[in-house]
Design a protein that fits this description.
By secondary structure, the protein is of the alpha/beta class. The chain folds into two domains: about 120 residues, 3 Solenoid (UDP N-Acetylglucosamine Acyltransferase, domain 1); about 55 residues, Udp N-acetylglucosamine O-acyltransferase, Domain 2. The protein is built from four helices and 17 strands. A seven-stranded mixed β-sheet has the order 2-5-8-11-14-16-17. A hairpin with a 4-residue loop joins strand 16 and strand 17. Helix 2 packs antiparallel against helix 3. The radius of gyration is 17 Å and the shape is globular. The two termini are about 30 Å apart.
Length: about 190
């Protein structure tokens, strides 16, 4: 509905697998392009709406659907039948279980599932496969235990992460993602 015939693009990276009945919409004047990164797998009947950015090495299983303006970080895994609301951001190396709906942002390195979508744990298998050390995985786990499991409110939990955990690249990404969320965190 936003597209008015303006010159916009769909950019598809290298080594992308697009299976049967996949739809990818071109960008609108909002962003001017829809981008699917390198080494992405779009399984049957997936949909990438206008002005989305799908990061490198992402997998979208059958029937996964992105509303407009969705941003997905690298190495994300979107389960079959997942619906992602427009303007939602999905953090890198996260995994959304099949059949669920993301209405708020999903931070990096986590596994989420349920109605409503909730934190299940860190993406230990994905992180291990990508070579994240046990120490890095433990630090990520500590951060998310503070944020999702502790009895602290979200502001207090974020302060605790900032003040009590080593500022590795992963912890910086978590903090940055949470602080810059516009739709709120699941």
């Amino acid at each position: 509905m936003k597209y008015n015939g303006e010159k916009t693009f769909t950019i598809i990276g290298e080594n992308v697998t697009i299976r049967e009945s996949v739809t990818i919409n071109r960008g609108t004047t909002a962003l001017g392009q829809t981008v699917v990164g390198d080494n992405v797998l779009l399984m049957a009947c997936t949909h990438v709406a206008h002005d989305c950015i799908v990061g490198n090495n992402t997998i979208m299983a059958n029937l996964a659907t992105l509303g407009g303006h969705v941003e997905i970080g690298e190495w994300a895994n979107i389960g079959g039948g997942v619906v992602i609301h427009q303007f939602v951001k999905i953090g890198e190396q996260s995994l959304i279980g099949g059949g669920f709906c993301a209405k708020q942002d999903v931070p990096p390195y986590v596994v989420v599932a349920g109605h409503p979508l909730r934190f299940i744990g860190i993406n230990k298998i994905g992180l291990t496969r990508r070579g994240f050390s046990e120490d890095k995985r433990l630090l990520i786990k500590k951060a998310y235990r503070q944020f999702f499991v502790s009895k602290k409110n979200r502001g207090q939990a974020l302060s605790s992460i900032k003040n009590n955990l080593d500022k590795t690249d992963e912890i910086k990404k978590i903090i940055n993602f949470i602080e810059n969320s516009e739709r709120g965190i699941i």
